[in-house]
Amino acid sequence: MRSTKIVATIGPASRDPEVLVRMVAAGLDVARLNFSHGSLDEHAENLARVHEAAERVGRPVAVLQDLPGPKLRIGPLAGARAELFAGEKLDIICGEEFEGDSKRMSMIWPGLADALAPGETVYLADGLVRLVVNAVDGQVVKLTVEAGGPVGGRGA
């Protein structure tokens, strides 16, 4: 009896019913649905297809729903990118959208300012850039860059 489980993400290349049957027959144990992409209708259809494939092959397949945490997007940036350096200050203005730069950026969601407090950490660029909140003044979040790097604005 094997102790390793085979987990596969179900997406455009693997959602075809016959492909799923072959995957289950080859030993698929867990079908992962990535909720970072696709619609709820697509996920419901994929779930039904996985269950159907498991039934056809006659072996159970677990389903893992990979739920992403919130990913908020900063607004557009002049030149599509900004370079942030450790020690620099950055203001994120919430509830607005404008072309930002390495000193000021916009965030369309107004709730961000209410969700943050001094001392908390904010990550940009999928976690590559780390900032710490210095203060929140109304809809302006004042931050200091701890770990710098390039940041792309929405559409970059």
CATH topology of the largest domain: M1 Pyruvate Kinase, Domain 3
The amount of helix comes to: 10-25%
Radius of gyration: 22 Å
Low-confidence stretches: none
The description of the largest β-sheet is: 5 strands, mixed
* Pattern of helices and strands: EHEHEEEEHEEEE
Large-scale geometry? elongated
Query: If you average the pLDDT, what whole number results?
Result: 92
Structural class: alpha/beta
Number of strands: 10
Tell me the strand order in the biggest sheet.
Answer: 6-5-9-8-7
The number of domains is: 2
CATH superfamily of the largest domain: PK beta-barrel domain-like
**How many individual helices?**
3
Tell me the span between the first and last alpha carbons: 49 Å
Q: Give the CATH level 1 class of the largest domain.
A: Mainly Beta
Descriptive notes:
The chain is an alpha/beta fold. The protein folds into 2 domains: 7-66, no CATH class; 78-152, Beta Barrel (M1 Pyruvate Kinase, Domain 3), CATH 2.40.33. It has 3 helices and 10 strands; from the N terminus they run E-H-E-H-E-E-E-E-H-E-E-E-E. A 5-stranded mixed sheet has the order 6-5-9-8-7. Helix 1 packs across helix 2.
